[in-house]
Automatic annotation (TrEMBL), chain A:
Subcellular localization(s) per the UniProt record: Cytoplasm; Nucleus
Domain Beta-Casp: 284-412
UniProt record similarity statement: Belongs to the metallo-beta-lactamase superfamily. RNA-metabolizing metallo-beta-lactamase-like family. INTS9 subfamily.
Oligomer status and interactors: Component of the Integrator complex, composed of core subunits INTS1, INTS2, INTS3, INTS4, INTS5, INTS6, INTS7, INTS8, INTS9/RC74, INTS10, INTS11/CPSF3L, INTS12, INTS13, INTS14 and INTS15. The core complex associates with protein phosphatase 2A subunits PPP2CA and PPP2R1A, to form the Integrator-PP2A (INTAC) complex. INTS9 is part of the RNA endonuclease subcomplex, composed of INTS4, INTS9, INTS11 and inositol hexakisphosphate (InsP6). Interacts with WDR73; interaction is required for the assembly of the RNA endonuclease subcomplex in the cytoplasm.
Free-text function comment from the UniProt entry: Component of the integrator complex, a multiprotein complex that terminates RNA polymerase II (Pol II) transcription in the promoter-proximal region of genes.
Family annotation (InterPro entries): Beta_Casp, Integrator_9su, IntS9-like_C, Metallo-B-lactamas, RibonucZ/Hydroxyglut_hydro
GN (gene name): INTS9
GO biological process annotation, one example: regulation of cellular response to growth factor stimulus
Pfam families given in the database record: Beta-Casp, IntS9_C, Lactamase_B_6
Protein name as annotated: Integrator complex subunit 9
CC per GO annotation: cytosol; INTAC complex; integrator complex
UniProtKB/TrEMBL annotation, chain B:
Major place of residence: cytoplasm
Descriptive protein name: BRCA1 associated ATM activator 1
Superkingdom, natural source: Eukaryota
Record's subcellular location: Cytoplasm
Keywords carried by this UniProt record: Cytoplasm
The keyword rRNA processing is annotated on this UniProt entry: no
GO cellular component: cytoplasm
Family: Belongs to the BRAT1 family.
GO biological processes: cell population proliferation; DNA damage response
Presence of the UniProt keyword Cell membrane in the record: no
Gene: BRAT1
Length: 637, 800
């Protein structure tokens, strides 16, 4: 059993598991941090950005971080754990010869589609006049300024996919529900479990009859909107692959939400605007819910909240229809009937308004001071670029970073100097290390496998020994482009016995509670299922020729020697020998058993746990006599 | 006993003795017992029994096995004990064979009823009552009673077990103080039988080394040394201390907590502490022997002792400081933390405890911090007090908890991992840090204190309870900060600190968590109360947005926050720091608006807390003659009283009376109660102004308010109103000013007439009585009990 690790990013994992005869890809996250090397794509021509010297408006901006560690066309299935971890799907399904199936839950697919749609839209609506790729040549790259010249494997950076590719990729997905058991080629069974992190987010169990691998990706134990995490089903795993822990282990989400609200209120109160770069789904639902409760107490009832994204409307509406994927509290609301999320009321009362982009209606309705939620969190494309340009010059305004995926300082780099206040409140509800250690105590896997980043404290806080996985035996770590042999051996395979064959067996009890029977059968293997069938009856002996042919077809069933079991009590054996006239019996103890010496006959009998040898000099009579004496002590069947 | 009760008693006794008529209400029996206690304390029990033979009959009845209810059985046992407390009555009951029957093997002890804890408890309490005179001792020693008490020490009911221990202590004290002929001989054979048996039992228990037995024995001894006095105590300790010392050799140490209690009890006992008896050595040995968590309470106890050898105190202080020394060592690379008493270095046992588990670490640190916090203000605390290292330790612990410490060692790293985010330790350390503000420290450390407090106040990860503690500690440090020499304003460091603090406070007032907003407002109120007059503070506060935010929180959805906001805004306004005071052009209109706003709160807020807070603010404003109030005091008082009189919350109405009293005092003169030791009698208000004053009171409708309150359904309001009217009458009548006012018969005159005609003193007396005083006679008790018998089950719920 092997694990191929294709991503070095612990929260955007991409691993391939070879288990029995199947090749299973676990997630395909798209690491977009390399966008930070590019200049922002402005919606409106920005004299400032276009007048920057040097390497402006360069290339396409999609970036696939993969190596040719494994032929991706051999992947049988892809299991997706949440919508953030499927963003690279078109690259894999469309250009690698992939012919398998992708499994994901319905909300994952729908929201994943929205995220991809938004990404494609952001990139495509600002087409570039020229595109450069010569710089990717290693010799030129060397001459570029840092950090570009240090970027690794820029040749693998890709253009963003198109909507066609997205549609084609998504058409390969098969929808699954929590706890649904999916058979893969009869060899293994995979099951998604609720992971509590996002709408439809899942952990996966991959099991055969005797082995169980759990794949834990972005999971959360906090009470936010999704269904709570299913921990119990992860118990008794041989291997637990643990990825997608919180990226900011020192920030507690509750505190950060508080920080977010306080800073938002302070800015707006002073007449400033608040910009929240965010994804169109996920934490934004929780933020809106917090604000819903908070705005009255903070006297913000008259401040407009704008949510700008090509998919804003769909995102807000989708969240309301996936009731079965929500936490219990929200599910019960549906029966009242009420919308599960309070942002419905914010929209109804006109406090929250959503627009596909800054063009069109938005420009008519726009009123300041206000709060704007928009993408993309990298600040390199999307409507956020416009607001950064618009509001960056005033110290009254604030940009509040809530998404933890990008370094906010790097994201801000092209906008410097900036007068706007910047607040960093990363809200990451995924498991922290305390929760992980509780989880591991609870589910007790035999082995834990995780990215190497989790086995040591973060580099910036090397003294925080609490910020790493602490388990026994120590977790096995992997890094990008590594192949890991998972530490367990498959010992057993399940074989079924046909009923008529089972009927013919005559078990014999050899010990109380243990019976044995010999089986003669034909092992039939198909679709990774093994069945013992009765051997074909020997054909009736009609003619000599036919018999001959028949004997060719069927292996000769020789008269079977009986099977022996039991052990030989040495003292009694010696007594028996003496009774039968062997007088000079000597016993020697060896490491594995005993040697009984018959000195006169120059014979020795070697008795070990699983074998007995009679060594005598060409005296077959004596050997047979001794053999029969030995057999007296053993059971036959 | 009065004849009416005597008449009722036989019927009641018959009811009690009748198992078919169960008594429904336990409290009646308790009241009955109390009543008998008062009777027997006042007169002869013997006579009582002779005059009321039904009582003896009741006790005799108990002896018959006929299924009396457990509560009547228990009652009878206790009643017998109450009677037998007098020696004559004891003899009488002895002769009637009643006592052995009740308390001996033949009594409830051998019956099924014994399984009820209340019967066992009644048995013990009966014995406890009767063991008052030496003649009871042979009775206790003879009929195996002591053995039963010994076994009851391990009773399944904690109440019974504890009462059994107390009883043993009592009997021991009674038997040893009897022959008051100097100290008893150390030889056991010379001691009274009871004492011999009890001490023998204690010795046996101590020798058994089994934790439950040892605990029982130690508890009995602890109580003995805590409550009994006399020369025999010393003899007792001399006899038992070797056994106690033997316990220290055991591993694991049985009943360590009880042992600590005993040793401290012995050390506090005046008889012993003067003559050493090897006690100090035992204490020193115990300190060495106990685990760090067990040794803490003992060390604190030793340090609290008035006179104990300096060496032992030093050792105890060392033990107490151990965990902090470990923390300091873990954070510093230096071999030993500077400034701690010599020999206080983190030892390996303490380090192991700290690193063993999160709960052990948090427990030990919290305990240590709490102990030191208790010790800090005491006069007998160790001197010199290591203020600097303690400050350092508190800061370091807080740094470990928020992950900002850079541990130098492996121990430090593990400590950091254990303590990171530990709210319990954070709270304890902040409390301790606040307590340390009583004294200052080296400037460098004070700077660190300010920095760590700011870190906590700023950190989004601080939980609301931690933040509250951080605010409290900050307040204590701020108020203790030194003033710049030769100037009454704040020193530059404090100014700087304030400049950083106020933005944090501003942010906290916007927190989505109401507890945080609440603690922020409380902090603001406190700091303004103390520093409202400091120019530096005023300047910084007005420049911040804090006053505006505080006013905004008057409309908070959470009532506690609204209440705190009312108090804070009231305080700010008193000090002229109200949000809009800064802009002169809006002065008039805005000022009125705050008063109006608070009046609005008072008359419309749906919760009591904000309304109470508003009343308090108004009272304070009136008392301090706040500018807004002074503009038109009468109108102000009238509006407030009108709102308060309609309020459903009695505390608001009571506070209204408080405000009325302040107004009264300002109009008529100080209430005499304010200066009870004044040489001259309070000056009566001159007649002319008196009439004017009364008319003013009438204009604000104070009389209506007070008279209505006089008959308020809530007693405290009526009491307060009564006091107010009494004061008013005293002020208005003495010099015959009423005659003067006769010329113009108007409202004041009528009011004073009413005041004169009311029996206010009588009313005050009646109000001072508890609510059931009318129904509290023994006769009514007996009648009630008789009346409830037989109707049980019909109106059980109607007891009150």
């Amino acid at each position: 059993m092997k694990l191929y690790c294709l991503s070095g990013h612990p929260t955007l994992p991409c691993n391939v598991l070879k288990f029995k005869s199947t090749t299973i890809m676990l997630d395909c996250g798209l690491d977009m941090t390399s966008t930070l090397n590019f200049l922002p794509l402005p919606l409106v021509q920005s004299p400032r950005l276009s007048n920057l010297p040097g390497w402006s408006l360069k290339d396409g901006n999609a970036f696939l971080d993969k190596t040719e560690l494994i032929d991706l066309s051999t992947v049988d299935v892809i299991l997706i754990s949440n919508y953030h971890c499927m963003m690279a799907l078109p690259y894999i399904t469309e250009h690698t010869g992939f012919t398998g199936t992708v499994y994901a839950t319905e909300p994952t697919v729908q929201i994943g589609r929205l995220l991809m749609e938004e990404l494609v839209n952001f990139i495509e609506r600002v087409p570039k006049a020229q595109s450069a790729s010569l710089w990717k040549n290693k010799d030129i790259q060397r001459l570029l300024p840092s950090p570009l010249k240090d970027a690794v494997e820029v040749s693998t950076w890709r253009r963003c996919y198109t909507m066609q590719e997205v549609n084609s990729a998504l058409s390969k997905i098969q929808l699954v529900g929590y706890s649904q058991k999916i058979e893969l080629f009869g060899a293994v069974q995979v099951t998604p479990l609720s992971s509590g992190y996002a709408l439809g987010s899942s952990n996966w169990i991959i099991q055969s009859h005797y082995e169980k691998v759990s794949y834990v990706s972005g999971s959360s134990l906090l009470t936010t909107h999704p269904q709570p995490m299913d921990q119990a089903s992860l118990k008794n795993s041989d291997v637990l692959v643990l990825t997608g822990l919180t990226q900011i282990p020192t920030a507690n989400p509750d505190g950060m939400v508080g920080e977010f609200c306080s800073n938002l209120a302070l800015t707006v109160r002073n007449g400033g605007n608040v910009l929240v770069p965010c994804y169109p789904s996920g934490v934004i639902y929780d933020l809106l819910e917090c604000l819903y409760q908070y705005i009255d107490s903070a006297g913000l009832s008259n401040i407009p909240f704008y949510f700008i994204s090509p998919v804003a409307n769909s995102s807000l509406e989708f969240s309301q229809i996936f009731a079965e994927w929500l936490c219990h509290n929200k599910q019960t609301k549906v029966y009242l009937p009420e919308p599960p999320f309070p942002h419905a009321e914010l929209i109804q009362t006109n406090k929250l308004r959503h627009y596909p982009s800054i063009h069109g209606d938005f420009s008519n309705d726009f009123r300041q001071p206000c709060v704007v939620f928009t993408g993309h969190p990298s600040l390199r494309f999307g409507d956020v670029v416009h607001f950064m340009e618009l509001w960056g010059k005033s110290s009254l305004n604030t940009v509040i970073f809530t998404e933890p995926d990008f370094s906010y300082l790097e994201a801000l780099a092209p906008y410097q100097p900036l007068a706007m206040k910047c607040i960093y409140c990363p809200i990451d509800t995924r498991l922290n290390f305390i929760q992980v250690s509780k989880l591991l105590k609870e589910v007790q896997p035999l082995h834990v496998v995780c990215p190497e980043q989790y086995t040591q404290p973060p580099p910036a806080q090397s003294h925080r020994m609490d910020l790493m996985i602490d388990c026994q035996p120590p977790a096995m770590s992997y890094r990008r482009a590594e192949v890991l042999a998972l530490p367990f051996k498959r010992l057993f395979e399940k074989i079924e016995i046909m009923p008529e064959l089972a009927d013919s067996l005559v078990p014999m009890e050899i010990k109380p509670g243990i019976s044995l029977a010999t089986v003669s059968a034909v092992l039939h293997t198909k679709d990774n299922k093994h069945v013992l069938q009765p051997p074909p009856r020997p054909a009736p002996p009609t003619s000599g020729k036919k018999r001959k042919r028949a004997s060719e077809d069927i292996p000769d069933c020789k008269v079977l020697k009986p099977l022996l079991s039991g052990s030989i009590p040495v003292e009694q054996f010696v007594q028996t020998l003496e009774k039968h006239g062997f007088s000079d019996v000597k016993v020697e103890d060896t490491a594995k058993g005993h040697i009984v010496l018959l000195q006169e006959a120059e014979t020795l009998i070697q008795i070990e746990e699983d074998s007995t040898h009679i060594i005598c000099d060409n005296d077959e009579m004596l050997r047979v006599r001794l053999r029969d004496l030995v057999l007296k002590f053993l059971q036959k069947f | 006993m009065d004849p009416e009760c005597s008449q009722l008693l036989p019927a009641l006794c018959a009811v009690l003795a009748d198992p078919r008529q169960p008594v429904a209400d336990d409290t009646c029996l308790e009241k009955l017992l109390d009543w008998f206690k008062t009777i027997t304390e006042a007169g002869s029990s013997l006579q009582l029994l002779q005059e009321n033979p039904c009582l003896v009959e009741l006790l005799c009845h108990v002896l018959k096995p006929q299924g009396l209810s457990a509560r009547v059985l228990s009652f009878s046992l206790r009643l017998a004990g109450v009677f037998a407390a007098q020696e004559s009555c004891f003899q009488y009951l002895q002769q009637a064979e009643l006592l052995p029957g009740l308390f001996g093997e033949a009594g409830p002890l051998g019956q099924a009823a014994w399984s009820a804890p209340t019967v066992r408890s009644g048995w013990i309490q009966g014995l406890r009552s009767l063991a008052q005179h030496p003649s009871a001792l042979p009775f206790l020693a003879d009929c195996g009673t002591l053995d039963t008490i010994f076994s009851l020490q391990g009773d399944s009911s904690l109440f019974v077990a504890s009462a059994a221990g107390q009883l043993l202590v009592h009997i021991l004290g009674l038997s040893l103080q009897g022959p008051a002929e100097g100290p008893p001989s150390p030889q056991a054979c010379d001691w009274p039988v009871c004492a011999q048996k009890i001490v023998g039992h204690i010795e046996g228990s101590l020798r058994s080394m089994a934790t439950p037995q040892v605990t029982q024995a130690l508890n009995v001894l602890t109580t003995t040394f805590g409550h009994c006095h006399g020369p025999w105590m010393q003899v007792l300790w001399e006899r038992l201390s070797p056994l106690v010392a033997c316990l220290l050799q055991e591993d694991p140490l049985p009943a360590a907590h009880s042992l600590v209690d005993l040793l401290l009890s012995v050390a506090r006992s005046p008889v012993l502490s003067s003559s050493d008896c090897g006690l100090w050595e035992t204490l020193a040995q115990t300190l060495r022997r106990l685990s760090p968590a067990q040794a803490g309470p003992l060390a604190l106890g030793i340090l609290k002792l008035q006179d104990c050898p300096q060496a032992l105190r030093a050792q105890a202080f060392g033990v107490l400081l151990q965990p902090l020394a470990c923390v300091l060592t873990a954070a510093d690379q230096a071999p030993g933390p500077p400034g701690l008493p010599e020999g206080t270095t983190g030892d390996s046992v303490t380090v192991d405890t700290l690193l063993s588990s999160k709960s052990a670490c948090a427990g030990l640190l919290c305990q240590t911090l709490a102990h030191l916090e208790l010790l800090q203000p005491l006069p007998q605390r160790p001197s010199p007090w290591p203020q600097a290292p303690l400050l350092g330790a508190a800061v370091t612990i807080l740094r470990f908890c928020n992950g900002s410490a850079a541990p130098a060692s492996d121990v430090g790293g593990r400590l950091c991992a254990i303590l990171a985010g530990c709210v319990r330790v954070q709270r304890a350390a902040l409390d301790f840090l606040g307590a340390l503000a009583q004294e200052t420290g080296p400037q460098e450390l004070v700077t660190q204190v300010s920095a760590v407090l700011l870190e906590y106040l700023r950190s989004p990860d601080s939980s609301p309870t931690v933040l509250k503690k951080a605010f409290q500690a900050t307040l204590r440090w701020l108020l203790s900060s030194p003033r710049a020499p030769g100037c009454c304003d704040l020193d530059p460091d404090t100014q700087l600190f304030l400049r950083e603090l106020l933005p944090v406070l501003r942010k906290r007032l916007c927190s989505p968590c109401w507890e945080v907003r609440d603690s922020g407002l409380e902090f603001l109120t406190q700091v303004t109360r103390h520093w409202g007059g400091q120019a530096g503070f005023r300047h910084a506060l007005l420049a911040s947005e804090v006053p505006e935010l505080a006013e905004q929180l008057l409309r908070d959805p959470e009532s506690y926050v609204r209440a705190s906001a009312v108090t804070a805004v009231g305080q700010l306004s008193s000090q002229g720091l109200h949000a809009t005071a800064a802009s002169p052009e809006q002065l008039g209109g805005q000022k009125e608006s705050l008063l109006a706003e608070l009046l609005h709160v008072l008359s419309t807020d749906s919760e009591g807390f904000p309304r109470r807070a508003a009343m308090q603010v108004f009272t304070e404003w009136l008392r301090d003659r706040h500018a807004d109030v002074a503009e038109d005091t009468e109108r102000f008082v009238a509006r407030v009283l009108q709102a308060a009189s309609r309020d459903l919350d009695w505390e608001v109405r009571a506070q209204g009376l408080e405000l009325a009293l302040v107004f009264l005092a300002q109009t008529l003169g100080q209430p005499s109660a304010r200066c009870p030791y004044a040489v001259a009698a309070p000056q009566a208000t001159p007649p002319g102004p008196l009439a004017q004053a009364l008319r003013a009171l009438s204009r604000v409708r104070l009389f209506e308010f007070a008279f209505r309150a006089l008959f308020d359904c809530d007693r405290p309001v009526a009491q307060k109103s009564c006091d107010l009217l009494l004061f008013l009458r005293a002020q208005a009548t003495p010099s015959g000013g009423l005659q003067e006012a006769e010329g113009s018969p108007d409202v004041p005159e009528a009011v004073l007439a009413v005041l004169r005609s009311l029996d206010l003193e009588g009313l005050r007396g009646a109000l001072a009585e508890s609510s059931d005083h009318v129904e509290k006679s023994p006769q009514s008790l007996l009648q009630d009990m008789l009346a409830t018998v037989g109707v049980r089950g019909e109106n059980q719920a109607d007891c009150y």
